[in-house]
Amino acid sequence: MKRNKSIVAVLMALTLLMALPVISSAVEVKTTGGAVASSSDMASEEDVGSSMTPVSADQVAEGSYDITVDSSSSMFKIVACKLNVKDGKMTADMTLSGKGYEKLYMGTAEKAAKADDSDCIGYTVGDDGKYTYTVPVEALDKKIDCAAFSHRKQKWYPRTLVFKASSLPDGTVETGTSGEADKTSDSSSSSKKYIDEKDASKSQIKYGSTKLADGNYTIEVDMTGGSGKASIKSPAKMKISNGFATATIEWSSSHYDYMVVNNIKYEPVSDTGNSVFEIPITKFDGGMEVIADTTAMSEPHEITYTLNFKTDTASRKGLSTKSEAIILGIAIVAAILFGFLNGRRRAHKKERRAAQELDAEKKTVSRKKSKLH
Question: Residue 181 and residue 332: Cα distance in Å, rounded?
């Protein structure tokens, strides 16, 4: 009898040991950070983001922008979001539609349940009473894990967020970095066919009209386009020969390996320092569109920029054309005034000489009369 009881006890112990994994998976594990919600507690989750190329902070111009955020759950609805980009980092001020979450954790719900409370993100209450959370953003166009802690249920709920690069203003993100943009257009340099500068004929190279005389100048040039991080040196060197103008464009980076103007490809003219190119000026005092290929990203990408060469700032021998015109005008006025004054001086001198001669003649006549008497 005792032997049978022992066998039964052993069998019960083995059964309990075999059932432990099943029991433990069904029972929520309590931690100081709260419990993880079970699948029965959660509404259905949607898949967000697919076939995307992540966009890092160094590919986005510094500033604050309204941005669209996709959420995997209708219970975690983001009604407004402000993306902040500064010093190579991104954060987002996310405002939720409801007030159901006490705190957030950027990571999985399992990690959130084990995390210290200091690693969690609390909310601020806006004038409209809505909750806003400021969270770090690892990258745009990338699935990011976020856990939300429910006020009422005191449980962590897993969420997936995607901050959409395509919702930012034009020119904020380097062209070709957005995964969605990559679907519709290939900005890789390998897909482009251009005429090499050395193979281009004179008729294929276009120049803008100018009234500036031949010579070497400097000229101020504005540039727009891209993310706003890259810049070019201004004033730029300019050379006019036979009425045709070329400019020396020096970038703030060494990562540009070619430029394209009117479908003609120009290689750098320097192997050291920042990227430098000599290109024709196709338009003055207006938008001149160029393409520059950068190797600063994970893959080479072509970026479209607009240059504006300002004619009235063109300077030769340290003087702008406007200054030269002013000085020339002053010189002409001075020459006319000098001629007038010099003429007046000569007339006065002639008048004095005539008066002196008349006076001398009068004195001579007077002496002759006095001798006769």
Answer: 60
Could you give the CA distance from residue 296 to residue 300 in angstroms, rounded to a whole number? 7
Strands 78-86, 195-196: parallel, antiparallel or unpaired by DSSP?
Answer: unpaired
- Residue 306 pairs in a beta bridge with 224, 289
Tell me the per-residue pLDDT of 132-191, one tens digit each, with 9 for 90 and over.
999 999 999 999 999 999 999 999 999 999 999 989 988 788 754 333 333 333 444 544
**pLDDT of 263-308, one tens digit each?**
999 999 988 899 999 999 999 998 999 999 988 776 788 889 999 9
DSSP letters spanning 244-301: EEEEEEEBSSS-EEEEEETTEEE--S-SSSS-EEEEE---BSS-EEEEEEE-SSSS-E
Q: How confident is the model at residue 28 (pLDDT cuts 50, 70, 90)?
A: very low
What does residue 278 show for φ and ψ, rounded to 5 degrees? -110, 115
- DSSP letter, residue 214: S
For the residues 207-219, what does the mean pLDDT come to?
Answer: 92
- How far does Cα 79 stand from its chain's mean position? 27
Q: Assess whether the previous peptide bond of 280 is cis (omega < 30° from 0).
A: no
Q: How far apart are CA 175 and CA 241, in angstroms?
A: 35
- The predicted pLDDT at position 84 comes to 95
State whether residue 58 is helix, strand or coil: helix
- Tell me the β-bridge partners of 134: 93
DSSP string, 305-359: EEEEE-GGG-EETTEEHHHHHHHHHHHHHHHHHHHHHHHHHHHHHHHHHHHHHHH
- Listing DSSP states for 79-142 in one string gives EEEEEEEETTEEEEEEEESSS-EEEEESS-HHHHHHS-GGGSB--EE-TTS-EEEEEE---BSS
311 HSE (CA, 13 A, CB side)? 15
Question: Rounded to whole angstroms, what are the CA distances from 67 to 142, 172, 189?
Answer: 14, 12, 29
